[in-house]
Amino acid sequence: MHSRLLASLGVAALVATLPCPLPAQEKMTMKAPPSRDATVTGTVVDVSCKFGQGLSGPDHRMCAEVCADKGIPLAILADDGTLYLPTSAAMPGDGQNPRLKPFAEQRVTISGKVFDAGGAKAIQIASIRKA
C-alpha cells in the first residue's frame, strides 16, 4: 500500500516538472475586425430601461442619466431600429457613457467606424452632435 502511494507521488512529481504551455503564456494576437465609416442618426437610450422596462422618451431622461452614472450602458437606437453599442479603440477600452450622457434620450447623429459581430453592431464614435 505504501509503495503504491510513493509510486503515485513520484509520478505526480514528475508530471509537475514537465514543461507545458499555459494559455496565459500564449501571445495575444490583435487583428481589428472589418469596419466601415458610417453616420448613424437615432436616439441615445439606456439599454436596461429601454429593453427591460420599456421606458424611454423625454420624461425618462433623468432616469437614463442616473442609470448611466451607475454603469448601465447607453447605446444608440438608430431610426431604422438597429441598436449600436458604443466601443472604444483604446486598449483597454474606455467607457463611452460620459460622451453619450449629455445626449440621453435625445436624437443624435454619430459618425465613426461601424463593426458587425455576432449579430450586433458596434460603433467607435468619432463625432456626436444633436440631430
Q: Can you describe this structure?
A:
- This protein has helices spanning 2-17, 47-53, 61-69, 97-100; strands spanning 35-46, 74-78, 83-87, 107-117, 120-130.
- It is built from four helices and five strands; from the N terminus they run αβααββαββ.
- By secondary structure, it is α+β, with helices and mostly antiparallel strands.
- It has a single domain (36-130), classed as OB fold (Dihydrolipoamide Acetyltransferase, E2P), CATH 2.40.50.500.
- The model is unreliable at 1-18 (pLDDT under 50).
- It has a five-stranded mixed β-barrel with strand order 1-2-3-5-4.
In short:
This protein is 27% helix and 34% strand.
List its traits.
131 residues; OB fold (Dihydrolipoamide Acetyltransferase, E2P); 34% strand; single chain
- Overall geometry comes to globular
CATH class: Mainly Beta
- Average predicted local confidence, pLDDT: 84
Helix content: 25-40%
Tally of contiguous helical segments: 4
Any idea what the CATH superfamily is called? NigD-like N-terminal OB domain
| CATH structural fold name | OB fold (Dihydrolipoamide Acetyltransferase, E2P)
Pick out the low-confidence regions: 1-18
Distance between the amino and carboxyl termini:
80 Å
Topology order in helix (H) and strand (E) letters: HEHHEEHEE
The Cα radius of gyration reads: 24 Å
The proportion of residues in beta strands is 25-35%
What is the second-level CATH architecture? Beta Barrel
Largest sheet: 5 strands, mixed, barrel
Secondary structure: number of strands:
5
The largest sheet has its strands arranged as: 1-2-3-5-4
Tally the structural domains: 1
Helix/strand class? alpha+beta
